[in-house]
Amino acid sequence: MNAPVNPADLKSAQPSRRDVVVASALVGGSLLVGCSPADLMSAGSKVEVGAFGPFIKIAPDGAVTVISKHIEFGQGNHAGLAAIVAEELDADWTKVTVEQAPANAKLYANGSLGAQLTGGSSAISNSWEQLRKAGAGARAMFVQAASNKWNVPVGEITVKDSVLTHGSGKSATFGDLLADAAKVPAPSDVKLKDPKTFTLIGSDRVRRKDAQAKSDGTARYTQDVRLPDMLTAVVAHPPRFGAKLKSFDAGEAKKVAGVVDVFEIPSGVAVVAQNTYAARLGREALKVEWDEDKAEKRGTTAIARQFHDIAAGKDASAKWEPFDQRGDVSGLDAAKGADIVEATYEFPYLAHATMEPMNCVASVDGNKVKMVFGSQGQTLDQLNAAKIVGCLPGSVEIETLFAGGSFGRRANFQSDYAAECVHIAKKVGKGRPVKLVWTREDDMRAGYFRPLTVHAVKVRLGKDGYPAAWRHRIVSQSIMKGSPMPAGKGPDQTAVEGAAGSPYLKATPAVDAQVALPDIGVPVLWWRSVGATHTAFVMEHTIDQLAAKAGKDPVEYRRALYKKAGADRHLAVLDLALAKAGPSATPGWTRGLAVHESFGSVVAQVAEVKLENGTPRVGRVVTAIDCGVAISPDQIAAQMEGGTCYGLSAALFGEITLTDGQVDQSNFDRYRVLRINEAPKVETYIVPSGNPPSGVGEPGTPVIGPAVANALLALTKTPTSRLPFVRSEA
Fold first, then answer.
1. Residues of 630-651 as b/e, b for ≥16 C-beta within 10 angstroms?
2. pLDDT of residue 43
3. DSSP string computed for 516-539
4. pLDDT (tens digit per residue) in 417-440
5. I want to staple 622 with a disulfide (CB 3.0 to 4.6 A). Which of 222, 286, 293, 581 is the partner?
C-alpha cells in the first residue's frame, strides 16, 4: 500500500453508525450486541471452512492447497505464504498450490490492519505465526491419525514431503490418511518448529507459484473476465477535483451503435455498451456540463507556494502538530553561522501508474452482489458495495483475481472505481454483469496521488560536528483524515513516518519536529512506502550535507550517530552494503549512500552514479536488508530490484502537475517512467536474522532517491532541493 497505520489503532476500530444500521436493519432489525468489527463486516457470509481450517485444503491425492487471504498483484507473496504452511506441515513443496481466499474479514482479516486488506508490506509478517500454526495443526492431525491407525506413539512418527513413516516400516501419504485425519479434532495448541530445523523456508526452492500462469497467459486478470450477457461501461469524470455533474445530453451518445444506456452516477456519467469500443465512442459523444463551484482550481505551482509559505512560518493560519520535541531549540530559528545547515525540499504529486488500470466486474440482483476483480481491500470493497445496495457486507461476494500492480492504489477508503462499478451494475440490475473499464487516461487523471510535500530543516552542529539542535517542519496533505480508521494520538503517521523515530533525531539532544496538514482539493493516498517516499530523502540527504559541513566522511558520520542512537540494525546493513560494494566505485562513477527503516525492515544502498548530458545515470546498486527471517531469498531480491527501479523512476522523472486544477499528465508520454536500458544492476544481500519476518515490498523504494542525491552531492557539491531530478516539459 501500502497503508502503514498504527496496528493498535486499527484493532480497536469500530464500524461507523451507518455500518451498524445497515447490518442490524437487515438482520431482523435487531442490534448486533457484542459483535466485533470482523463479525459485523462478515455478516451474511456463507464461507465454509474445511477440516483443516480456513487456510488449508488437501485433496484425495494428497495435493495441498494453501488459501491466501492476501491478493497477488506482482509482489510474489503467494509463494512465501505457501512456504510457511508447507514448512510446518512438512508437505511436498512440488505439490503445493495457492488459491485466493474469499472475502471474509472474520476468517481472513490482516492481523496488522484489522480488515481483509493487503498493504503496509504486511502480508508475510502478519501471517507468519498464523500460518505456521495452521500448518503445524494440520500436521498434528495427520500424525494423530497415523498413530491411531498403526497403534504407535505420535512421537515415533516422522513426516517428510507429505509422507508419514514409522520405524517399523509403516508409511502412508497425506492422501492415504486424509479421511482419518479429517476426523481428528483440531489441536488447540501446537508445537512449532525450531527455525534451525527449517528445510524449505530460506532456501532457493521457494520460488513463485504463479510464474508459469503469468508466462503462458493463463493467469486471469479483470480484463480477461468474460461472462454471459456482460456489458461494458466507461465513466465521464469531471475534469477538476471536487466538481459535480450539472447536466448532460445523452442524445448523440445513445445513437452510437452498441451503446445500451447512459445515466448519472455519483462520480459522473456512465456509458454502458455492448463492448469497450462502443462505450468509449459513446462517452466521446456526450455533452456534459460540470458544476465547478467547489472544485480545486489551483495549479501545483500555487499549491507548492502555499506549502513553502507554511513551512517558512509565513502562514499564521497553519495548524502545527508536534511529532518529536525535546530539549531547548530556542534561538535556532534566528541562528546563523558556520555551524548552521538549512535545507528546504519539495516533492511532487505522484501517480501510482500501475500497468493494469483500474477495472472491476460486478452484478447486482436485488440485495445480491457479486464482484470479480483484483480487490486489494476486500473488507473496504464489501462495506462500500453494501452501502450502495443496502445489504449485509458479508453477503457481498468478491472473487479476487490477480492484479497488474497497485502500489496502494487499489485500496482506498471510498473503493472509488469498485463503487462506480456497483452503482452501474445496480442501475442495470437483474444480475446482469457489467465490466467497468478505466483507460490509462482515466486512471492517471483520477487522482489519489502521493501527496505533494514540503520539508524545511534547520540544524545547528555542536563542537564535535554532530547535530546539537534540529528543527524540522513537514507540510503535506493527510491521507488518513476523514477515514473510517481512527487516527489515534498524535499527527497522521503517514505524513511523518521515517522522520519520527529516526536515529538521527534520537541522536540529537534538542529536537523540534512538527507537521502541518492543510486541506487541499486533490485526492491523495498511500503510494509505495508512503511517508518514507519523502522522509527518507530528507533525512539521508540532510545527513550527507551535515557531514560535509562538519568535514567528516558520511559513512563514519552515520556510524557515530547510529551508535549514539543504539541503531544496531542500521549499523549492520550499512556495514554489509559497504563490504559487498567493495573499497571503491567503478571507474568513472561516483558513489552515494543511504540507509532507511520502513515497515519494520532496514535497508542500506550504495548507488554508483554518473552524469550523462546533465542527467543522472545509475549503474550499480548494492543493497543490504534486515527483514527478519528470509522466507524466500529469491523473492526478497526481486522485491529489492523492483522497489529500487520504482523508486528510481519516481526520483528521476515522476511528477504529476496541475494547471488551473486540471491534471496535465494522462499517459506515459508525459508521465515518464524508467526504461529497461536505464535500469541499474541491483545486488541484494540479506542480514541473517532469527526475528519474525518484516516488510519487503516497500522498503527498497525510498532509499534509492537519496542515495543518488548523495552521489550527485559528492560529484557536484550541490544539494538536491526538489524532485524529480529531471523536470518534465510541462
1. bbbebbbbbbbbbbbbbbbbbb
2. 83
3. E----SS-B---TTTTHHHHHHHH
4. 999 999 999 999 999 999 999 999
5. 581
In eight-state DSSP terms, residue 609 is E
* Distance of alpha carbon 331 from alpha carbon 69, whole angstroms: 53
State the burial class of residue 486 (Cβ atoms within 10 Å of its Cβ: 0-12, 13-18, 19+): middle
pLDDT by residue (tens digit) across 157-190? 999 999 999 999 999 999 999 999 999 999 999 9
Q: What is the grid cell recorded at 621?
A: 546498486
- In angstroms, what CA-CA distances link 198 with 56, 111, 131, 208, 629? 20, 24, 15, 19, 11
- Per-residue pLDDT of 346-393, as tens digits, reads 999 999 999 999 999 999 999 999 999 999 999 999 999 999 999 999
Gap between the Cα atoms of 538 and 504, Å rounded: 11
Closest alpha carbon to 103 in 346, 302, 329, 396: 396
User: For 5-26, what is each residue's pLDDT tens digit?
Assistant: 233 332 333 344 334 444 443 3
CA–CA dist 470, 445 (Å, integer) = 38
Report how far residue 619's alpha carbon sits from residue 405's, in angstroms, rounded to the nearest whole number: 25
DSSP assignment letter at 222: G
Domains (range + CATH), the chain = 49-215 (3.30.365.10), 223-293+358-437 (3.30.365.10), 306-335+449-716 (3.30.365.10)
pLDDT-above-90 percentage for the chain:
90
Q: Residue 303: its pLDDT value, please?
A: 98
In the chain, the amino acid numbered 236 is A
What pLDDT is recorded for position 480? 94
User: Angle 477-480-482 (CA atoms, 0-180°, nearest 5)?
Assistant: 100
Sheet of 96-100, strands arranged across: 56-58, 64-68, 96-100
Give buried/exposed letters for 91-116 (b at 16+ CB in 10 A, else e).
Answer: bbbebbebebbbbbbbbbbbbbbbbb
At 482, the pLDDT band (50, 70, 90 cuts) reads confident
Cβ 644 vs Cβ 623: under 8 Å:
yes
Single-letter code of the amino acid located at 440: R
**pLDDT range class, residue 28, cuts 50, 70, 90:** very low
Q: Among residues 323, 319, 399, 325, which one has the least CA distance to residue 360?
A: 399
CB 292 within 8 A of CB 243: yes
Say how far apart CA 535 and CA 515 lie, in whole Å: 12
Outline where 412-530 has alpha helix (H).
Answer: 416-428, 440-445, 493-496, 503-506
Per DSSP, the residues of 642-705 read HHHHHHHHHHHT--B-EETTEES--STTTS----GGGPPEEEEEE----SPP---TTTTTTTHH
Measured at the CA of 531, the angle between CA 724 and CA 565, to 5 degrees, comes to 110
How buried is 362 (Cβ within 10 angstroms: 0-12 exposed, 13-18 middle, 19+ buried)? Answer: buried
Q: Please report where in the chains the cell 445496495 appears, as a residue.
A: 389
Give 556-600 pLDDT, tens digit per residue. 999 999 999 999 999 999 999 999 999 999 999 999 999 999 999
Whole-number Å distance between alpha carbons of 253 and 264: 13
Distance between CA atoms of 324 and 315, rounded to whole angstroms? 21
> Helices marked H in 162-265 — which ranges?
174-183, 211-216, 251-254
Contacts of 454 (CB under 8 A, 6+ apart): 304, 307, 308, 310, 311, 344, 345, 346, 347, 474, 475, 476
Asked if residues 105 and 56 have their Cβ atoms less than 8 Å apart, the reply is no
Cell triple for residue 18? 451507518
Most distant pair of Cα atoms in the chain: their distance: 84
Question: Residues 395-408: pLDDT tens digits?
Answer: 999 999 999 999 99
Q: What's the N-to-C CA distance of the chain in angstroms?
A: 29
Span 639-689, pLDDT tens digits: 999 999 999 999 999 999 999 999 999 999 999 999 999 999 999 999 999
Give the single-character DSSP code of 376.
S
